[in-house]
Amino acid sequence: MKKIIYTLTAILTFSSCDLLDQELPNTIPTDEAIVDRVSAEAAVVGLYNEMQDGSLYGSDAVYATELMAKNMKAVKFQAVWQELGSGIVPSANFHVEDSWIAWYSIVNNANNIIVKVPGLNDVSESEAAEYTGTAHFSRALAHFELLRQWGEYWDISSEYGIPLPTEVATAPVVTPRSNVSDAYTLIESDLFKAIDRLPAAGDPIFANKGAAEALMARVKLYQGEYDSAYYYANDVIENFDYDLQEDYVDIFSEGTSESIFEVDFTQQDFSNYTFLMFGTEAEIVMTDEAAEMYQSNDERGVLIENIGNFFRCTKYGTNQDNGEGNAFVIRLAEMYLIRAEATSRNNGPTTGLPDINVLRARAGLGPVDASSVNSIADFNDVLTREARLEFPAEGVYWYYLSRLGKLEEVLNRESFRRIYPVPLRELNITDDQAIFQNPGY
Amino acid sequence: MKQLGLFCLLLLSGFSAVSVNAQQIVKGKVTDFQSGEPVPGTNVLVKGTSRGTTTNFEGEYNLQLQQGDSILIFSSVGFETEEVSVNGRTQINVTLMSDIQSLKEVVVVGYGTQKKQDISSSVSTIDQSEFNDIPTSSFDAAIQGRASGLNISSPSGTPGGQTNINIRGATSISASSQPLFIIDGIPVEVKNNSVLSSNIQPINPLAELNPNDIESVTVLKDASAAAIYGSRGANGVILITTKRGSAGRDKLNIGYYAGFSEATNVPDMMSSSEWIGFLNAAAEFDGLGQNYWNEILGNPNNPDLPNYNVYDEILRTGTINNADISYSGGTEKFNYYLSGNYFDQKGIQVGQGYERISGRVNVDYSPNDKVKISTTTFLARGFHERTIGENDEYGVIVNAQAWDPRFPLVDENGVYVNPFDTYSWWALENPLLIAREYVNTSKNSRLQSSLSLEWYITPNLTFKSSGGLDYNSLIDRGFVPKGYNQTDIGLGTYGTFQSSSWINENTLKYTNTFNDDHFFDALVGITFQESVEEFSVIDASGYSTNQVISTAAAGQITNASDGGFRFGLVSYLARLNYTYDDRYTFTFTGRADGSSRFGENNKFGFFPSGSAGWNVHNESFFPDDSFLSTLKLRGSYGAIGNQSIGSTIAEATYRSSAGYAGEGGSSALQLGNPDLTWEKTVQSDIGIDIGFFDNRLEVTADYFKKDTDGLLLNADIPGSTGFRSLISNNGNIINEGVELSLNTINIESGDFRWTSSFNITWLENEVIDVINDGEILSRNFILKEGEPLSTFYLIKFLGVDPQTGDAVFLDANSDGIINLDDRVVAGNAQPDYYGGFTNNFSYRGWSLSVFFQFQHGNQIFNQSRYAFENYGTLKGGIPFGNQNARSLDYWKEPGDITDIPRPSHADEFSPEAQFQRFSTQYLEDGSYLRLKNVRLGYTFPAGSLERMKLQSLTIYGQAQNLLTFTNYLGFDPEVSTNTASDGSLNTLQGEDFGTLGQARTITIGLNIGL
């Protein structure tokens, strides 16, 4: 008897060491996450997975701006959409809170790649360039989205920038808000690296040099650096293999030569665009105004259909249970608008019109009446209207209203609401010196 | 032993044989007064001598008397000792009264039993008789209100649904505050592991345990009692002891009850004509003219206007059936208890039900007086049918309450009416269709088995080793039929969950008494436990038919994944009880736990406690003739822990499931915390036990304070890290309170007996310190220092302006807009006090028990009312839905004082809004007093039983939740929508959004002993 007990106790004591050190099947310790070529590649793929987040390009970041711009309206229960649709967005709005974190998740994942990949032995130089190039592109994209949604991006001297973490997060520390100028400096530096390191062309569902230049065109435009904006937009239009689709509707068949960067979704790895817009529990539909602004011969109008008492946009598909529609983050048409705006700013209001007319011609419309464009303000009206017609449900139009200061004029809304309030949860858990609310809120 | 007895018997008979005096043989039978059953093993002693015998298994004895032997003493454990004069008789039958006092004297505690008198910690016991045959699926719902300090609530009326249990308050924010459940020494899994929608009430794994297998329940409340469970004891411990066989005649018991149930209350909805009239009033207030809706919805004064009461179709009379059979008995060496149970409950709402079949075999075998081997085996299968209920656009109740009353749910052709063909904007789907055609079933199988060996090395030293297994297997099926409003293609889910945990415990126990006065009881032990959980889930869509719901019948699999968790625990424990002269008693307990859940730097924790008690009534100075029969002072102090968090928490990890465009990817999942350790609760308790008049009145009072530090808090962290939250040890919660319980024998005269017991707990819960003071939880709650957990954070409704009839809200941030940024601290869901009050009456064979249960001072945010009490709002030009009949008392003209504003078609985002969805308009007092249970029974007397050839027969009728006194406007005040996670149970209590509460249940039943 005693022998049995001794043996038993011995066995148990031996196995007890393992009892306290349990491994889980589906996760990887962070310090073992990027250790070789295979794992580094997985982490790079993971960046796109973060962009797919429901609160980002998975639908919400796009639809939120469409709601605020009154291209879309919230028609069901969820307060998060109704608040965005009202344009009076509380700092506790769930989308404002969630997307802030999700953009920074891209930043954090990118930081880990930027820090780890250069030290890996089995990664070739070209692979390392691609991995870190993608990480720099992703970080710039996320920082720029954060800046134009929460920061005073239009004023280079403003103190209301965004936190700019560049280290891998290992502890719950606060990164204070930077000023706007520092934010642009980091975004541009990341984009220069991306332009330098990424492959020149390829499938638009992955970052490449064209995408980085196109993003740079946007970034330059937002700073009012029209020469540079012109340079990058023009370079993308002229020196890459992108082409405008002949038929507007073809753009949304995915992966076309018009697409510069899109986020891929499949039936298994799906977006929420159609889920939110279709089916009976549709939370969000198009406004009548957005649907009815098209002339009868404008091809772009056919993608907004009256289905079940509401206008709904069919760009992402029409089946609520099938979310394979991709997010179109940047496409060539926007480069035409950027080149048009930069040209007009530099050379006079009407000089940019030909680029706008390219888009109009594609849609089956005649050119803009140049005689009605007598000032930059007139040009901006034309530009804003064209952005609205060209990009409904793509999350572009709002930023024209915001950037060109048209909130009061177009939406009858106080101008400070052109950016989001800083999320209440961030304010509640940090001190006022590090994270502070935007003016007006 | 037998030989020795035989030898004694021979000796006795030999001795008597040589006696020259007249000898006499006396024989007879000893039976139990209450049950009439034989009492084997009764000592029969001739008074004043050491001669005697014991009864056999039939309770019979046979004793030779000598000259001068006049009195026999009959004594048996658990019975009062009887002295009987022989008076020349040769046949003496004796009935023994069970000694209730002595039965109550031994209390089950962690890793053993203790004499009640020696206990210096705070422990409550609940005897099986208190919850016998109560018509609930699980025993935990049946012990509600039965012990002080124990707060149990059933968040819904879903059969087999989960309960929320706190002992002396919720101590945590992110970790579980539910107590540790130990069944026959094995810690058991009580989490809901169903993968089905979180908007369905969770299933209760304890429902698989047959309540009639339970012998007793012990609640360990203070640090001294619970510290033997160390890192898992902070929320208290509930010890469940199941029935076992005992030596004696075999007993076959059969029990059956059946009954029906209905909703305790139903919020009345408007009739068609009331609804149209109400909408017309709204339109008129809004300046749209009179009778605006008549053309669209019909003339409210038309007597032929169709009108349907939707509750008639989705609610029903529930039924409940329970059958038990048990067989028990044994010999000196071998005891057994076998039982089988079948339970079936159909809920009061269409589509809800629970069915259980279970069996148990408990066996003890003592081959000799050195060794005892015991096994318990329990096998059960539960089948849950649930419906989408809470907080969901497709909830049955919310869609029913919004239903356009002019339409039936099923038309004359038997077709479900589509709400889109009606004038209700909110109703998304036909509620009867959701209840009947959506599938949400869970099959749970459970096996618990243990084997233990006790080795009595010396009379003072016992070694015990036990091994146990708890195995759980759950299969979930969910299906949303195609061709209706939610989906055109059909959505299916198939999920599995399996957990198996094993435990091995080894203890060495030493008891001894030195110099008659110093009693020692010492225990040391080492235990090991490991738990492995594995799950899988498949989601599918694209069904060809609604007849086959298997994911194999779907056109495509949209998600298929699996995963798992593991956790291990290694513990060392020790306890010393010391009693001096039955006057002073001390207990010291310590447990060191090592857990795999915690960070590298903090794997082990130590939890010590101590307590002392003083039995004043045993002091020599205490007068023997005092009206005080018991006076005991107790105090305890100690530290206990809580580790009920997920098994993945401490380590910084990447997820391996971050794929894109068909390629596998990885991305950061969470930050790590290498210092993560237990939540530590330091609890102090001061108690007093007083017995008056030979303990006819017993009072127990305790003051306690639970100071929980280093909360396992999943706190918000700066979003610029890329993460939402991080679990860390941060913050402090204090629960402070007083418990009082009274037990009285009010009348005991002849055959009539009236006893009462009453318990009440005053509890104050306060968040002292949190890392993110003011963190908003789930929109309607806030975590704030100085406030309790589950504090509401809502827009403040100031009332209705008597001049304009407009609802007025507090613009807390003075920005001229009423929105979520105007929320303020508005109350909380924690009761100020709660308890229960039982009266038991018995007269001859009749027994009546009346049990009240109450809680007071808690608030409920009745969010359902926003759906049906929105004062006429329109969405997309369509009425939001039907309205509560209560809204008819709206403001009508200047000077009206009411809290119901004038109706208006404006919605909540309009400046004219008459309601704010997240405002205190819908915050209500949730206090209630409930006649929880009434039971009237009749036990047949021995005479008639003999004619029926039965050992015992009891018939009874009982009513559960018979009456509820409350001001709450919803279905039932015992309600909570947020039950999905441990954190929700702590911090999001008291919200009601489409949850159907408790039912009133009437049953009749009988118990037969053969």
From TrEMBL, chain A:
Alphabetically sorted, this entry's keywords are: Cell outer membrane, Membrane, Signal
Could you tell me which SUPFAM superfamilies the record lists for this protein? TPR-like
Report if keyword Signal is assigned: yes
Q: Where is the SusD-like N-terminal domain?
A: 22-221
Q: Which organism is it from?
A: Mangrovivirga halotolerans
* Protein name per its UniProtKB record: RagB/SusD family nutrient uptake outer membrane protein
Family statement: Belongs to the SusD family.
Q: Where in the cell is it found?
A: Cell outer membrane
Keyword Signal part of the UniProt annotation: yes
Q: Where is the RagB/SusD domain?
A: 283-411
TrEMBL record, chain B:
Where does the TonB-dependent receptor plug domain lie?
115-237
Q: Which PROSITE patterns match?
A: TONB_DEPENDENT_REC_3 (PS52016)
Q: Supply the name of the protein.
A: TonB-dependent receptor
Query: Mind telling me which Gene3D superfamilies this protein's record contains?
Result: Carboxypeptidase-like, regulatory domain, TonB-dependent receptor, beta-barrel domain, TonB-dependent receptor, plug domain
Which top-level group of life is the source organism from?
Answer: Bacteria
Taxonomy, top ranks, is: Bacteria, Pseudomonadati, Bacteroidota, Cytophagia, Cytophagales
Q: Native species of this protein? A: Mangrovivirga halotolerans
Q: Which family does it belong to?
A: Belongs to the TonB-dependent receptor family.
Q: Signal: is it a keyword of this entry?
A: yes
| Chief localization | membrane
Q: Where in the cell is it found?
A: Cell outer membrane
Q: In what residue span(s) does the TonB-dependent receptor-like beta-barrel domain sit?
A: 401-962
